[in-house]
């Protein structure tokens, strides 16, 4: 059957090539700029119209095709990687990429994300093949293609942070943070140490508390805050802006500087996570606490399981461990368990631990607020109505309500009588539907304390997640050295924080140069080298015996 004349252009490879490139440009623009999905169509159509007008792939005065390999292949592939990461996680941090590559990126987002990865790879192959055909066929593209390669490299956000600590670049000093680091130690414990419930709310930053911009999305957390101590102006430093980095910053008092080239095997997942420093779990385990971590996502992703197992936790429960306990094993999102299921299991675990009579600590990590669209639980949909699949404020309201509901259930059972409750965001949210409103003003993380001994009220201090560890320890009644632990200072004391002493950009600049604290954090991952034989000491010969005074040189300050 002959092809109708209207469809005859489809027989020409030129139009398929331009269509593939146009769809990729449209998808990239929609993903990076948060335009609505339908925006892909006019962008691709505009590209095709431009290709028709300029006769791309079919110049009026063609030259013979040339078998060349475009310089832009690698820059295009890097842009494809950035778009995939932005679509998966909402934002891209180069240090996070380095860390996740070494700590493990398996089980990131479930079957849907694995399918997306396969489709991205196939579409990237189609894009590269299409671009090769265009460059080889149309000499005009060959002439400008090298400039395009430079433009793609210069504009790729993935490469903006190339000097971040994740690359393990050595500088002249690199010990500014190490000199300010205080090893976390407990000098004295209370006679009746309290239990600890630490709720990490994925991406639920305190910025959402602004009702003028975000309505009542944060209202349930505001109501909880009225019962305890709320800390404002908890800023985000570099290398604390993704989940593992935020948890390590708040539990260990230091930014997460990835192992980088310090890793003993660059091609295998990390066997340990920050093994050189003590964190909250280590300190509590040493004082007889039974510790459990529960998260909806897989514990193999980003080394979460390794981190908690190596730092004092007895039970580490994630998607693989909790899914068999679900009434409906298929009630899962792309990452793992919904938060209502997670909190049900947390309640069961707290009941079990409370019966032992030992002090306990439970840490949970939710998923509802995960960028870019969130994963609200069915119980929230029953309460709030249908979810449109994009409005992040719906997910914020869900996360806040579920946290409040859990606290109320625990209180009703008398399980919080001697318990400090910590509610915190793991980091500021990445690109979401409310992005333009979020970045209108200064942003800060959620951090609040609830408990019988916690003074109520609000405290506004320039601080960061580094200050969470010493604050939590002192709120639990533990005495620590000079109100400090790691790089943080207790917000319940008068000791100044890093951000009260130094500008945030100054601290971030020092962080990018730091090597000493990085080595401290990853102590044990550096391959041991056989000791070198010391060179025989040579006796110094002086020209004049009177110069041999035996004095030591003055110490350089």
Automatic annotation (TrEMBL):
Predominant location category: membrane
Membrane topology qualifier: Multi-pass membrane protein
GO function term, MF aspect, one: transferase activity
Membrane-crossing segments per the record: 38-56, 68-85, 115-135, 147-163
Residue span(s) of domain Sulfatase N-terminal: 195-477
InterPro entries tied to this protein: Alkaline_phosphatase_core_sf, OpgB/LTA_synthase_biosynth, Sulfatase_N
Keyword Transmembrane: yes
UniProt-listed SUPFAM superfamilies: Alkaline phosphatase-like
Sequence ranges of Acidic residues compositional bias: 544-557
Pfam families per record: Sulfatase
Gene Ontology cellular component terms for the protein in this record: plasma membrane
Name recorded for this polypeptide: Phosphatidylglycerol--membrane-oligosaccharide glycerophosphotransferase
Organism, scientific name: Halomonas heilongjiangensis
